[in-house]
Structures are given as structure tokens and as C-alpha cells.
Inverse folding.
């Protein structure tokens, strides 16, 4: 038995969310989620571009290690230099090669797993020799060969198949969204990854 001064609660006395309140909360969640997803895809693209740039830099470093060590090319050639070939007319590929006859790049002297393929819309944007002040203002060339010979770690940098030796080279890479990063190789053998403006 319920005392007279205490009345049982009916369904009309319970407080609940209104439809307007639910729509406002749902709208806020949708807006926050879309902002996060949009930034996540941009962030993912930048991370992939950084990974590609470091892969290219590490492949140049691999050519340098092969060139200054006693890496065998073919059955018995232990004295060949090694290098990297970049061509702006083929922006989806770059190649590691052996300079067995010391005449520069030759497609028949590629070292497996070369040629390396750039995928997912990323590509070589431009090649610059000399490196310039940044990736935007540097003067482009069509081909760059970077070769390393024993016993020094120094790089020999050639453009467009010419025999002239240059001071530095910049390989500018671009994402499908237009973000850029670059690999800079100097004739002293220094290899670095640069962000825009560097």
C-alpha cells in the first residue's frame, strides 16, 4: 500500500530527449567525424609521400654502399661503380645500375630489383641540378645520373647523359594531392630528405 502523500510516477512525468536534441547531437557527431576523416586522408597521403622519399634516399644510399664496397657485378667484376638513374620523362620509375664500363647509365646494367616503380599516383615531379634553394624554385633538367666509385663515398652527378660533373642534385617527389618532398644528393656524398622550403 502506497502512502497518500507519495504518488507513483506516471510515464508523462519522465523526462526524455526530444527529437530536436537528438538531431543536433547527431549533426555535431557527423561534422566532427567528417573533419577527422578528411584530415586523416591528408595525413595518410603525407605519410606515404615521406615513406616514398625515404625509400628513394635509401636506394641512393644503397648505390653508394655498393659503389664504395666490393659489390660484385656479374660473374667476376668487383670494380664497377654503382649509380642511380632518374628520368623526368618516366616519372613512375627510377633505376639502380652498375657502371661496369665506366660510361654512365646503360639500361642493360640494371641491378635487380631495378627498375623501382612508384605507385598510387605518386611520381617524380622534377629533377634539379644544381639543387637550388628549394624544391619550387630549382631549375629542372630531364635526366640525372648519380654514380659512386670506389674508394670514396663522393657522388659523381651527371645531367642528360653529359660527362660534366655537377655539385648537387635534387629529386622532387609529389603526391596526388600536390604535396612535395625532395631528396638532395651532394657531390660530397651527403644524401638528405628535404621538406618544402628546404
Amino acid at each position: 500500500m502506497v502512502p497518500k502523500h507519495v504518488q507513483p510516477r506516471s510515464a508523462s512525468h519522465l523526462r526524455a530527449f526530444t527529437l530536436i536534441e537528438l538531431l543536433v547531437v547527431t549533426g555535431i557527431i557527423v561534422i566532427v567525424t567528417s573533419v577527422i576523416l578528411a584530415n586523416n586522408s591528408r595525413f595518410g597521403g603525407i605519410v606515404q609521400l615521406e615513406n616514398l622519399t625515404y625509400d628513394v634516399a635509401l636506394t641512393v644510399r644503397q648505390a653508394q654502399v655498393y659503389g664504395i664496397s666490393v659489390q660484385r657485378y656479374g660473374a667476376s667484376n668487383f670494380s664497377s661503380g654503382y649509380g642511380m638513374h632518374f628520368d623526368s620523362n618516366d616519372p613512375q620509375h627510377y633505376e639502380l645500375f652498375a657502371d661496369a664500363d665506366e660510361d654512365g647509365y646503360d639500361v642493360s646494367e640494371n641491378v635487380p630489383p631495378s627498375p623501382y616503380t612508384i605507385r598510387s599516383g605518386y611520381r617524380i615531379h622534377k629533377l634539379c641540378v644544381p639543387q637550388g634553394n628549394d624544391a619550387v624554385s630549382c631549375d629542372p633538367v630531364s635526366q640525372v645520373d648519380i654514380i659512386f666509385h670506389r674508394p670514396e663515398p663522393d657522388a659523381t652527378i651527371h645531367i642528360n647523359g653529359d660527362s660534366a660533373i655537377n655539385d648537387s642534385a635534387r629529386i622532387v617527389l609529389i603526391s596526388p594531392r600536390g604535396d612535395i618532398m625532395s631528396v638532395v644528393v651532394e657531390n660530397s656524398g651527403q644524401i638528405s630528405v628535404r621538406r618544402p622550403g628546404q
The longest helix spans residues 19-68.
